[in-house]
Amino acid sequence: MATGLARAGGKASGPVLRRAKSAGAAYRLWKLQRQAEVDTADLSGAEQKRMTRFLARNGKDGADTLRRMDSESIQRMFRKTCSIGTFRRAGDGCNQLSEEELQDYAEAVGQADVGLGPFYKKIDDTSVSETAAERFVAETGPAGLRLAVKLDSNAFERLVKIDNDAQDAIVEAWRSDTLEVSTDDAQKAIQRFDSLESAKRTEATRLLEDAGGEGVNLIVRIRNSRLEKILEINTEYSREARSNLAQELSEGDVSVGKIEQFATDYISIRHESGSESIVQDIARQDDVGGPMYEARVAVEVGTDRIDRLSAKVGSSGEKGELDIVLNNGGVIEIKDKEWDQLGVSQFKDVKKKIGASTSYKSMDGNTITYMVRELHVGDKRKTEFLEGMEEKAKEEYGVSIEIKIKDDLDKA
Predict the structure, then answer these.
(1) Which has the closest alpha carbon to 48: 9, 13, 7, 23?
(2) CB 239 within 8 A of CB 206
(3) What pLDDT was estimated at residue 227?
(4) DSSP-derived pairing of the beta strands 306-312 and 321-326
(5) Maximum CA pair distance of the chain?
(6) Do residue 188 and residue 276 come from a single domain?
(7) Contact, 120 vs 73, CB < 8 A?
């Protein structure tokens, strides 16, 4: 540690104390310097002035911070700064910190409660400039410094070099209350960010801003190629949908495999009319399994056979919605839930879809096929149920509709 006034005496402290505006303030600064144990003789006049501002603003906490630092770290912290404006970390024209940035940096150091030695060693071990690393801390605060000293050199260098918004999002997610994020996961997230093109990095940043630690969990657990597809989804509800997927994954309500499959499926059908409604449903529903399975079935059906997805019936959908309408007029309804019986609930569901189908267009001679992920109903009961529903369609709507229930597509 530097041993300041004990060695430097009054001569060293003089230039600092002369800047105090009253005797009381001068005494207070003198006490803080003694507590800080800084050898001010090693500092230039400008550096002493900046240290004075730091102590005046941060008091005992600031003195405690300086006492824990070695002489080299103190000199690096208070060295010459820019004289104009505040430069963003990625800004041009200045290779030093502005006064405002230095103050933010000093405050972050004071609050982080970590030594600066490992931080500067990490800078020395990488191609990161000292100014860029300090600007990163000035912007992201004490959490940014705490994360920086925990990262390996490769992740540290990547983090300092990526864009400002991404830096902020990663640091905030690392300290997020929504889900604990390990340093290892933070490093993986940084590597993923660094590999993304600009537009997808922007979407990944928004995901972290919206979902915090849950967003990191999504980013690091799915494969790179699938992550890029998830970030490529571009509708009005994409941002909300990604956040909801992150939450559902963290809570164990949907698997990594299903999210990866959905990413591939949706990109395959995104140009189909109505596909954006699938994303809207994922954004708005607690159970995302249904719309994800709808995308899976649509791919299996084949886009060449599909007329429209998520067709709303009525002027504003008041008469219901049909999951998939085929070119031949047939309808496919998607059920992600298990059906272990054909009772009142299923009766009401099928009856409602018959009404919606006949309102959408003439269904005479066409089919309504229910795709059920898991169907545990005997053939006899299934036959009785379907015949009864087809008869009801004939009686109530005067149309002949073939109703099918399947647990595999079989060219529905």
Answers:
(1) 13
(2) yes
(3) 96
(4) antiparallel
(5) 105
(6) yes
(7) yes
Q: What is the pLDDT of residue 39?
A: 67
Stretches where the chain sits below pLDDT 70 are: 1-40, 42, 45-46, 79-95, 177-178, 361-365, 408-412
Domain that holds residue 362: 302-412
* pLDDT of 361: 64
Number of domains in the chain: 2
Residue 127, number of CB atoms within 10 A of its CB: 10
**Where does a domain end: 280, 296, 312?**
296
For residue 270, give the nearest of 322, 230, 314, 313 by alpha carbon.
Answer: 230
pLDDT of residue 83: 44
Q: Answer for the pair 253, 214: CB distance below 8 angstroms, yes or no.
A: no
- Beta strands 331-339 and 321-326 are antiparallel
> 59-74 burial, b if ≥16 CB within 10 A, otherwise e?
eeebbebbbbbeeebb
The reply to whether 289 and 337 lie within a common domain is no
If asked whether residues 383 and 323 sit together in one domain, one would say yes
The two tokens of residue 205 are 């940043």
**Which pLDDT belongs to residue 91?**
41
Query: Rounded CA gap, 277 and 86, in Å?
Result: 45
In a domain, 236, yes or no: yes
Does this model's pTM top 0.90? My answer is no
Q: Which of 296, 320, 352 is the last residue of a domain?
A: 296
Strand partners for 370: 333, 405
